[in-house]
Amino acid sequence: MAKCVPDDGQSGYRTPEDVHVTDERRTPVTDPTLGVHVPLAGNDVTDARLVAIGDSLSHGFQSGAIFNTDLSYPAIIAHELGWSGYRYPTYNGFGGLPVNVELLLRTLETRYGRAIDWWEVPLALFSVRQWMDELEDYWERGPGSVIGETATINHDLSVYGWDLRDALSQTAAHNLALLHTPKDDLIDQVVENHRERAALRVYPTSERYRTFTAFQAAAELGEIETLIVFLGSNNALPAVTNLCVAWSDSGYDDLNRKSDYTVWRPTHFQAELDQVAVRVRKLPARHVIWCTVPHVTIAPITRGVGGKVSATSAYFRYYTRPWISEQKFDPRQDPYITGRQARDIDSAIDQYNLSITDAVRSARLAGLDWRLLDIAGILDRLAQRRYIDDPAARPPWWTPYELPPALQALHPLPDSRFLTSDGTRRASGGLFSLDGVHPTTVGYGVIAQELITIMADAGVPFFHPDGRTPRTGPIQVDWARLIQRDTLINTPPANIDSALGVLGWLDQAVDLTKRWF
Length: 517
Description:
- This protein has 517 residues and is an alpha/beta fold.
- It has one domain.
- It contains 19 helices and twelve strands.
- It has a four-stranded parallel β-sheet with strand order 1-5-6-10, sandwiched between helices. The protein has a three-stranded antiparallel β-sheet with strand order 2-3-4.
């Protein structure tokens, strides 16, 4: 368990010496090539047109569950490539793993309407327990518990919750060894070993491949046209999902000990990244796109309260759960991290991203076609409460990110706030799903579009759905398809009120937040 050190003036919280603290976030990188010319590789089509190694953001996690994997950003890109051979894991049944909060909210809405009245709370709580029990039974003892022996390697090799060390060391054999006979617990109704169960649908379990890591599995796919590496978010994200700052120390690179920490010191991140870069260099990948790590306090899993630290600061005094309002927040009893801790974490992430950028530059100087997508910079430019609503906090480099016309036509305009409903339609948010960390379907579309633009510039060929007819001109995501599939954009659950009362109640009732990650 993580050993949190609160910044309360009494617990001795200190910023690690290798964290170079700055008030202003790094200037985003807008040139994927970093100004280093590398001759374009051939554009003949390979068997493995797209491979992704990453975490929940590449796996397709949404609203607390891995479920709609056909709408992950790699799946969106594969669709636009006109490539029908793309392979990815599926998690059909009870809204996926571990807890699909959208499905749960819609179940409550069907039974109790747009609001849960005070006299309905005991029945609603019973309904939640019953639903969670059915979910647990499905994945622990029912059809979802079956783990067959598979020999097929997916093109999406991402697993939610994974960090750099997981990508380096996790195997199907390791996950199989962690499975144990689950208990039918009426109180702690989380699906036991849910992450291991999810990973075993990503990685082949046959004896031949059982000990393969992500990089070994990718190598087995043969020549890769485009490899996307999007890792590192989970080396800092637990600090905000748990509202607990525990800087990495000895054992950070040990699968069995790293859970003691919620945010990696930059030197430890660099050591892990160096090993990942060595593995990537050995892969037969024509193009490699690395994504930077987003600043974790921009995602609406936390709400900044207490006002900004100063008139020009990007940071609030406290960061707590999004369903705790400014008026009701009490630092004596509510969970939080401080603005100083948020700044420290973001400063460390800036150093993570400098390391990723340096790895890409080094590879390009060696003649490899590695490119950079600065996701961190994109989200900074979409940060509603940090920058858009507070011009005084904007750094000199800041400009607003221009959403695609199809999203600009939506009303209200999708933004980075927590998604809410006025009872009939979306009232705010729209880029983040109901777990406050992972994108909605159109949010994944934004990531896919940025990657597609880089791929097209690298000479990657895109085809119409027949897989043979070349596409010409700028390659655009099929926004009409994604908007139609995005249930949170079109018809969000009506029981997400503006105060997020339902989600707050669920968090208290079933410890929802900790089950998501």
